[in-house]
Amino acid sequence: MTTTKTRKVTLINGDGIGPEVVDATRKVLEAVKAPLEFEYKEAGSEVANKYGTNLPDDTVESVLRNGCGLKGPTATGIGVGQQSANVGLRKRLELFASLRPVKSVPGVKTRYENVDLVVVRENTEDLYAGIEHIVVPGVVESLKIITEKASTRICQFAFEYAVKHDRKKVSAVHKANIMKLSDGLFLDCFRKVARGFPQIKSEEVIVDNLCMQLVRNPERYDVMVMENLYGDIISDLCSGLVGGLGVVPGANIGHSTAVFEAVHGTAPDIAGQGLANPTALLMSSVMMLDWMEEPVLARRLENAVWKVFGEGKVITRDLGGTANTAEFTKAIIGALA
Ligand code: NAI
């Protein structure tokens, strides 16, 4: 179903190359005449000095109100300190599912040709609950929290995604041979949910074995569902199979709210130089249009990206070309059918 109603989207520039890739994506969305109105809001380490927080309430409220955000990367320091703006957004908006489709890009040379995977990552618990304490000096405990509710919800999401997108198989990724209670609970939930989807093949794979299998034969896999930490690592591994972080989109999805963002970070080494590759955020906006039930616009944008890559003339430096962000953006707009 295609709607023509204008929808408000919260646009968050973020840090580093964030403003550059957000600007490029907004220009392309305007060129494709997506019925969107943008509400700019702030988040990230740059604004933390201004507001005393990297995630102002006003930003969270805007995404809640609009139901949808498009976000550039935000920087997070290593070590004890403030929670990352991303983790904050996911928690406060209950964006429980991280969705990362990883697909070979035509014209981008990698070791593999037909990668077409989907990583579904649980976003709200596991070691990312951030429950850590010093037991005695020199000994730190970090708690891995796994619940039946969150595990069932993410497995249900993965199977529903598989049905909706005509996928054939869902693999549960775990380490239940060692973490018998926590990952064992995740697997139990997966098995129960899988029974409700007899048309979708289901299988279980241990996470270390999966890493080996993915780099040898990524075609073996389809949709993969997993806890938070495994998902963080596996999604970056998968992006390496198709040309790296610059081309892989992502979304954090809740019951009625979603935030779309690239997998990559703020790329401080090239920030402000106009060299960033905006493909990942552009493809995230394709996911956003699909989520908004605007498939015609989504395919137009996606086809333009594929066309520019297929021609191989205007490619950014991270992928071996010479184009800057502005030249690449212009090429995408020119390729819109
Ligand atoms: P990064 O993804 O920013 O950079 C890794 C390498 O990839 C760099 O050489 C960078 O130049 C390159 N790269 C990344 N995206 C690119 C793009 N679109 N075009 C061209 N080259 C690109 O990862 P790093 O250095 O580990 O993280 C930097 C900061 O980003 C950290 O503060 C981290 O916390 C944050 N970060 C934020 C994320 C988010 O907001 N979703 C996700 C990942 C990291």
Structural write-up:
This protein has 337 residues and is of the alpha/beta class. It folds into two domains: 198 residues, Isopropylmalate Dehydrogenase, CATH 3.40.718; 131 residues, Isopropylmalate Dehydrogenase, CATH 3.40.718.10. Helices cover 40% and strands 18% of the residues. It contains eleven helices and twelve strands. It has a ten-stranded mixed β-sheet, with helices on both faces. A hairpin with a 2-residue loop joins strand 6 and strand 7. Helix 9 packs antiparallel against helix 10. The longest helix is centred in the middle third of the chain and has 17 residues. It is globular, with a radius of gyration of 20 Å. The model has no long low-confidence stretch (mean pLDDT 94). The protein binds 1,4-dihydronicotinamide adenine dinucleotide (NAI). The site of 1,4-dihydronicotinamide adenine dinucleotide has 21 residues, from loops.
> How does the helix and strand content classify structurally?
alpha/beta
Helical segment tally? 11
Q: Would you identify the CATH H-level superfamily of the largest domain?
A: Isopropylmalate Dehydrogenase
What value does the average pLDDT take? 94
How many domain modules? 2
Strand arrangement within the widest β-sheet reads 2-1-3-12-11-4-5-10-8-9
Q: How many beta-strand runs?
A: 12
CATH fold name of the largest domain, please? Answer: Isopropylmalate Dehydrogenase
Q: State the name of the first-level CATH class of the largest domain.
A: Alpha Beta
Report the sheet with the most strands, covering strand number, pairing sense and barrel closure: 10 strands, mixed
Output the helix-strand order: EHEHHEHEEEEHEHEHEHEEHHH
Compounds present? 1,4-dihydronicotinamide adenine dinucleotide
**Rg from Cα:** 20 Å
Shape: globular
Q: Which stretches of 5+ consecutive residues score pLDDT under 50? A: none
Distance between the termini: 21 Å
Strand proportion, as a percent range, falls in: 15-25%
Q: Which CATH architecture of the largest domain is right?
A: 3-Layer(aba) Sandwich
- Fraction in helix: 40-55%
